[in-house]
Amino acid sequence: MDTKYNPKLVEEGRYKKWLDAELFKAEDHDDKQPFTIVIPPPNVTGKLHIGHAWDTTLQDIITRMKRMQGYNTLYLPGMDHAGIATQAKVEAKLREEGISRHDIGRVKFLEHTMEWKEEYAATIREQWAKMGLGLDYSRERFTLDAGLSDAVKRVFVEMYNKGLIYRGERIINWDPAARTALSDIEVIHEEVEGAFYHMNYPLADGSGVIEIATTRPETMLGDTAVVVHPEDERYKEMIGKTVMLPIMNREIPIIGDDYVEMEFGTGAMKVTPAHDPNDFEIGNRHDLPRINVMNEDGTMNDKAGKYAGMDRFDCRKQLVQDLEASGELVKVEKHVHQVGHSERSGAVVEPYLSTQWFVKMEPLAEQSLDNQQTDDRIDFVPPRFENTFNRWMEGIHDWCISRQLWWGHQIPAWYHKETGEVYVGEQAPEDADNWTQDEDVLDTWFSSALWPFSTLGWPDEDAADFKRFYPTNVLVTGYDIIFFWVARMIFQGLEFTDRRPFNEVLIHGLVRAEDGRKMSKSLGNGVDPMDVIDEYGADALRYFLATGSTPGQDLRYSTEKVEASWNFINKIWNASRFSLMNIGEDFSVEDIKLDGKKSVADKWILTRLNETIEEVTRLADKYEFGEVGRSLYNFIWDDFCDWYIEMSKIPMNSDDEEAKQMTRSILAYTLDQIMRMMHPFMPFVTEAIWQNLPHEGESIVRASWPVVRPELTDDASKHEMEQLMEIIRAVRTSRTEVNTPMSKEIPVLIKAHNDMHLNNIESNRHYIDRFCNPSELVVSLSPEVPEKAMTTAVFGAEVILPLEGLIDMDKERERLNKELEKWQKELDRVNGKLANEKFVSKAPEKVINEEKEKQVLYTERYRAVKERLEQLKA
Fold this sequence. Notes:
This protein is α/β, with parallel strands linked by helices. The chain is elongated.
């Protein structure tokens, strides 16, 4: 191993070796239990961001661990064609060349787009490689693959035949710049300063006016009614009358509907069924006409009267001026509100009446909710997100699935050129010349909703991968797309496979900037994961992302914490180099023997290793990776590096060959187990170190996951070692407090509380000699304690440093009083817990026993400190 940890050298070329050896390839037999994760397919629109890095790191940790645990693990890669985003980018590229898609036609445009896709797909694969993702590229899929396209057609046709897909006229999100319908997730709501425009609608009989307020006055040109609450005393008598629509001079009715909130505004609303989803529903209930006053590009059409041809916002300005001139404008109030913008084009989204294809959601949502009451339910981690899922399913509305694009799955519907008859099928009609296929494509989310099963060979239900790896085990994703993707995969999986698409959904949050703000291009606070890898290495980034948050919570990016991860890896690297130098090049797996004579340090580190393996495995199975990181850090940095490695120098520098051989065995075994536990988090550096250790097998990727070996646990060694470490810490702390360096010898007295503790300390005095540098070491049940000394209570003993001429007795009394207060607080806390009947009745026996042990320990320390204070007062 190199003398310094260099992530670039460690990571360079290693991923290719893994791929060449096909270490990530799932097996084509059923000897092992399968475990499957399908990657949430990134859009083929460019570079992966830090959120992708977090998402895929968690997936890779889970799949690497399961592979090591002996599962036939499939981590399936793939990408999404990203309809609107991809088409927009390709069209922009064509515009730079002075042409449009209409100039070259649909076929040529799709060829251009596929070339563009291949270029960016290669970039994404390079980024996956840089992250070290253990993906099975032999099974990589793309949402426009032939197999996935077959699945999309099958689903569309079957849903249409079942009445779950229909074509109709409804209000949808419309992007006037891209001239296409949008899904809700493609609408970004931004806070903007607008206005409430108040205007009077005069009653047709001349008896008065009704005041109306709106934020979009241009839509009033399409008003077909005014609505009030039927119980509103102000307007009850007006229901059934008519008003004259200002400017247009069209007579429209006053209707009653309990949708109106009497307390809000004037209690009266304009109804524009073609330009507002709520108005659309009111219009349906009252059989109102739908008047669309806009063109698809956001200009006003001929139904807008004299405003025809004007841009919608220019029309707004002119209309307000005209209302003011006619005396019908009451007032204009500034109003800050959320306005939907197209994620792709930036245009203000228009609620727009349009003929589109829709999925009837109510029966699918009901099926999904019912399934959550069965054994085939999907478990959400954390569980609170099931409520989010349920709320969305309970309030769901029909899903607009058609898009006015060329890039995507063209809708498998044909219209007869003469009769207008609609034919829906997986193949074109036999007399295809007489039919025209629908120009639109399906929403990208329609195909990605099939991702867990379409990627595995469905609709061929006999496909080997579908039979072996479906349903998948875990979906890992952010909480921001529970509605848009997770829910859709659930209802499509249940509808077409009769099974849940995944057993669990692990939900994480968003990666935020260091100040807590959301990362965005406009704020310029985004972080490119590839830049971080170039500076600190993939392992440091992965470890930070994996251990920096708990399930469901957001993660704040921190350069300082990435550096801390790098420092941790560097510590592991240096500890490994020391261990390997002492193990020796000729030491093999067969030489690792752990059944001989061991020191207390040997027994203790093996016991702590067992505890760490058990804790890490338990926490990782619950996806508590932040806690896994804490457990690994404590064991590796504190126990192994700071204590055991230092203690191992004593036998390694002695003439005791038996002790040396045992130390080599424990160093080799412990380091091997550490590398295996760390491997899912830090794949590159653990492989590099493991290859230098005595090992069997080609790669740590396929090494077995550590398991607890009960025969290596020695509980007594924990108490013995804890006492020893406390003694050493006490001496070092006391030296620091009186500014006495470790290089200067001083006498050390240890008062043991009983014969057992006396024997333990005596048998380990060589460690105290090595780490405390005493001029003399006295261990006794009743040593002669000088007046001027520092005393520290430790487990089973007191450490006394005679410091004549070095200690201020007033300060020592002050220190001891503070220590007495500390132990009193700890005693009060633990006594309170044990006196609490609820705690004692509900807490596990192990937890109660731990609190009782603390009670004994704190009582002992309180007594020792109090005794020493009384001695000083005497």
